[in-house]
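Board notes, transcribed. Complex of a protein with zinc ion.
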Amino acid sequence: MLKELWNDAEGGFHPAGAADFLPESALRQVQLTRLRAVVSRAYDHVALFRQRMDERGLTPSAIQSLDDIRQLPFTVKTDLRDTYPFGLFASPLGEVVRLHASSGTTGKPIVVAYTREDIAVWSEVMARTFACCGMHRGDILQNAFGYGLFTGGLGAHYGAEELGATVVPVSGGNTDRQIMLIRDFAVSALCCTPSYFTHLIERAGELGVDLRALPLRIGIFGAEPWTDGMRDHIEAAAGIRAYDIYGLSEIIGPGVASECAVQEGLHLFEDHFYPEIIDPETGEVLPDGAEGELVLTTLSKKAMPMIRYRTRDITSLITEPCDCGRTLRRMRRIGRRSDDMFIIRGVNVYPSQVEAALLAVEGTLPHYQIILTRDQGLDQMAVEVEVTPEVFSDKVRALEDVRARLAKAIEHILGIRVILRLVEPRTIARSEGKAKRVIDRRHEGT
Ligand SMILES: [Zn+2]
């Protein structure tokens, strides 16, 4: 049994960590009490929610059990755009102490708000996230998530302080300085996007710094989907344990779910965020274990409650007990974000499928880009991937061999043929935040 409580370096127990280990009946009671309160709050203060409830002939008293949540209307991303900027706030501005915004792909950003209590909850769930990943007081966390309107930087910052760790608020970018600080401060944990960390590993190698020889032992990665193949690469190259965390601005930011030492699914902090899995076509709630779209309800949020928010992320819930001892349900890693999907010749493709195929073939590096073009009305998909210097400098046969194996792996996963371009290391642009994996040039009139 791996049961690891939320201990600091001296063995003290942080009381908030107890919520991870509540007996199921107690957890469900907490959820129901909070659900009823948040539905009342949204009904009383958010015009859009009240209108949708009224249309259904519902009042907050309809919530007598957790299953009654199924009667409530969904909230979707366009609701945030349509009410931009402050239309979904349930608190007066006098009680809102923080705003964040996410850029979104088109038009206006999505704005989210926090009261002082919301910031406290966010700090708590992020502290629980770090504890889940094996951090404790005494650890030095280098926070390379971007600070600013993006929720990653400040969310991680407050959570690490809440845990009692020492935060280095370096933000994203300036990779050489990041590496210097990791070494000079004996940093033990680092958080950023997985794609940025692969860049950091590569740069450390160029500078002659062996990350495996440093005290760094924990990597906390989120804000973009990544595969188990990428995890294997990161863990081997940096000599760390790499953990996946999950969150989204609309719900709170990072801190919605986290992997634990077992690394089999992410524990949802479901005393604050109530999960459902629905059929994305019909909206029907699916049984535990079935794959579908994750829907989240914020149970304790004050400034901007989200009722049945459709995340567009595809996953399933794991209800079996976890070896770490936490009673919180887990969700499978998000391999596919609906927002990232593109359609090529009638086939739905997710960048993570391409990543899985690439990383399964020896001789490739975890740096790739997908380029979509249209040639005489026909969609073309090209994958550019860097190969190791050994493969690149070797005789043509090594390159052709890698190309053949890659083509086969991709065709096997996607069922379509793609154009493959094997390029030298450092050819593809590096990102300091979320990597841009897909460049779609199909509407550029080529
Ligand atoms: Zn666990």
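The pocket of zinc ion is lined by residues 260, 262, 267, 322, 324, 326 (CB under 6 Å). Residues 24-45 form the longest helix (22 residues).
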